[in-house]
Amino acid sequence: MRVQSPSMRERTKNVLATFSERSSPHSRNQRTAALKGPLTMSAPSKPSQRLKIALAPGDGIGPEIMDAALALFKEAGVHNHVDFVPTEMGRVVFDKGNTRGITDESVRIVEDCGVVFKGPMETPKGGGGKSVNVTLRKLFSTYANFRVFKTLPGVQTVYSKAGINLDFSIVRENIEDTYGGVEHRLSNDMIQCKRLISAPGCDQIHRFTFHTARKLGIKKVFCGHKANIMKMTDGLFLDRFKAAAKDFPEIEIGDVIVDALCMNLVIKPQQYQMIVLPNLQGDIVSDLAAGLVGGLGFAPSANIGKNISIFEAVHGTAPDIAGKGLANPTALILSGLMMLRHIGLLKQAATIENALLSALESGLHTGDFGDPALPGYTKEPANTNQFVRGIVEKLGEKPKTVTPAEVPEQSTPTFETSPRPEGQTMIRTFVNIVSHVVGCDIYLDSPLSPPAVAEEMMRASQDTPFKLSLISNRGTQVWPTGSVYTECVDYYRVRFELREGNLPGTIGQSRAVALMDKIAEKFTICSYELLRIFDGVRGYSMAQGQ
Amino acid sequence: MRVQSPSMRERTKNVLATFSERSSPHSRNQRTAALKGPLTMSAPSKPSQRLKIALAPGDGIGPEIMDAALALFKEAGVHNHVDFVPTEMGRVVFDKGNTRGITDESVRIVEDCGVVFKGPMETPKGGGGKSVNVTLRKLFSTYANFRVFKTLPGVQTVYSKAGINLDFSIVRENIEDTYGGVEHRLSNDMIQCKRLISAPGCDQIHRFTFHTARKLGIKKVFCGHKANIMKMTDGLFLDRFKAAAKDFPEIEIGDVIVDALCMNLVIKPQQYQMIVLPNLQGDIVSDLAAGLVGGLGFAPSANIGKNISIFEAVHGTAPDIAGKGLANPTALILSGLMMLRHIGLLKQAATIENALLSALESGLHTGDFGDPALPGYTKEPANTNQFVRGIVEKLGEKPKTVTPAEVPEQSTPTFETSPRPEGQTMIRTFVNIVSHVVGCDIYLDSPLSPPAVAEEMMRASQDTPFKLSLISNRGTQVWPTGSVYTECVDYYRVRFELREGNLPGTIGQSRAVALMDKIAEKFTICSYELLRIFDGVRGYSMAQGQ
Predict the structure, then answer these.
(1) Residues sharing a CB contact under 8 Å with residue B194, sequence separation 6 or more, in sequence order
(2) Which one, of A311, A314, A348, lies nearest residue A82 by Cα?
(3) Could you report the predicted ipTM of this complex, rounded to two decimals?
(4) How far is B249 from chain A (nearest CA, A)?
(5) What is the pLDDT of chain B when averaged over all its residues?
(6) What is the reported pTM?
(7) How big is the A-B interface in CB pairs under 8 Å?
């Protein structure tokens, strides 16, 4: 079903029903066909029509809020259509010595289901265990993190008190940037982290963003970035944003430097509808945005990939209250609503959302929030079970103080998955580019002074096609010119470029490797980069002061 | 003069009087000796005792707000002690074809003065011109950006309306991180930016932070970071923070992941007194913080180096209102107060600050802010000159609704500079470390599949001391194990590590370069890193999924 003329509030609701973009959809099983007929809560489908969702309750308060969310979903008829398949992830798996935090069997379940519903999970400190959250995103290439930030009734914040109602979303690239975790100690004193931004990675996230914006009827999308400093990497992110926008002419675009964005968000957050950002900046800005609507306890999150998607509460495991039945399940319920829409249970999702909003506006609250001005507010907060029972009681009602979700007559499931790939997929943007070697950057672990380094480098390169063109330290040029006020560390970048008379295309990389070999006789070479031009465009930045 | 028992408000005021940490102070001229005696506004010092400050009014609204700030300072007696020496920077210099945006003569003036008072400057679009702001920071190694965020009377914000009064500061590392701007296109589709964090760079900023905290009587300092993802680089930043803290046992420390920090800052900003962060994160968080107190128009900024310090307004040049005499000079005045304290004019600074606060609380305002509830509020805003005259009228008064700055009986100047260095200074932390080669990471520009790359790499390394240990793509392992759901780009990292039987220390880097040379026969090697252990500790990260 296609919702007509969506209201502001409605907009961010149906998004996940249809935002997977697939060029050649294949139904892996009978789901799609089976769900084309009317879906009602009173008419359970036949067993053969059931959907499967991988279930990962999580650690700490995870199991109790997951039980609560599922109890609510069951009352709304979700279980008539869905089987939740248990998996093993998180602490129990780490405790068995599995440093990945997920069993092979559970990986297979996730791959089979294509959808994961996940509570918060601990990352064990020490012992080499990595965050399951990050591992899942990487393992299943869920390249887009989609988060919605909406003012909820009864959830008091600095902004709600100021009468500012929010309803916007952030798309965060979920794979690249410094999150590859590629780090090297290059000298005694210098450590490097590689920040990687690829054109096809940008294209994926920007297409996702515009498709989603189109579904939601959003009129303007902003790209947040730091392209004034990271001119090539974030420059690429911004260029590909503009390129992707051309296929969505009805959507206006804007771009904003991330520091200005954060200032704007605290001064006047209601000016944004949707923002797409690189990974680290998106991480920071989306948690800021969660703060604007009350914190992580009220902000749902979806990690969307081509094949597999993960819906999760991104707050912590709250070990201090775990097992006491006091936790607030709102973020997990909201993430679950995104999931229900993703698998096409639009009617159930809208019904649950209206019940949640009705309960919240009546004053129902757990111990972490609450507005005494609301009619049904009780000084004693509800525990987790009471909170969910309060929502269940409102099933079928619509909120009065905020715009209700529009409940469709029926659901139109669109969940379909691609077949399991036989190997890794290559994603590419730029092909048939002609590149030529024009030099190399060689990085030295050395405590020598800039003039001493320069002298050695000129000697090493004298009989090669390359001349020493600059030396920089921490990005600032220190040779041939520079300032005596520049403080240097024991890690130099030495740039060699083709001598006059050697045209690009006439010298291969072997001459650069040979130069490196020669320098390695006297210096520790901690790092190296080939300098090339791509279709005539320089593929490297200048030094500050060059 | 040492202020006793500083109040919360007093704390952040005197900071810049004494926060330069110098191991062996040298007075470059007669300033220090001359200014030891009492400094009063009524007793101008002799010409030989005068201070020099390099003046850069800036572009757009820069000249008019600088004139306003200087008029105010003159009325408060500052010019009895200070000569402001004009420099040429910014648009006028760019327009002459100088892409650095500062003349050589002006560089010499800055070096001679040691202090710069600076208005906002344009960065020309296109033409290769770089931001003068960034160039100055790099050129003069002003490694610490110190910014104070204080709620001002009459400046309405979402937070002031909620009754939240703020008074905290952020120290941002100003040289390292991705701000070196070292970027390379490594394949058709992949661009890299180097994120560099050095131990001595961390030590500088953390020592500055703790010294400043001690001066201000701050009880707890937080380190913001992303060490859960950038485990080595931000891990180093956090480790050196903890190491530096040991010399300041009276100051409690805490650390907070930057995304959580941003959420906390919008939910409950008053929980922080001082936060130190790496460059990019500090950039983002300090602009967020400026938003909490009304924006960049109310947030002063100082860039502090060992030899040279720059005090500037960080807002834009506002070309739309430039030349109309309408601009708000508050941020520049506040930055100037930091400067006056830095050069020891404590009494003048406190007097001006009290006059500013008195004027603001009376309702004086320019067109960009104002609180109609204040007694002297006028619907028609003051222009720049009227605004400054309104402050001048309050000289000698103290604010009634906020804690006034304590006006010392006399000023105790502490401004002294080191002699001009003869060459670049080396800064070092870890010396006498024993490192051994244990392998290398070689990065390929290749569209082949992971198994095809693996086969070639095994063949190339078969007669070398190194064995192929992993292949990753965008940080995620794709060989020997991996997921078919990992999407790959045309840029691989191939890791070679010592075969069994080859002990660390027995194989030199030349064998790694030889392996690279061999691989270069068939593949384009876009990048390379030597893998080493340092005092037995692995100097490189594992791949995700390894």
Answers:
(1) A192, A193, A194, A195, B178, B180, B182, B183
(2) A348
(3) 0.91
(4) 25
(5) 89
(6) 0.91
(7) 447
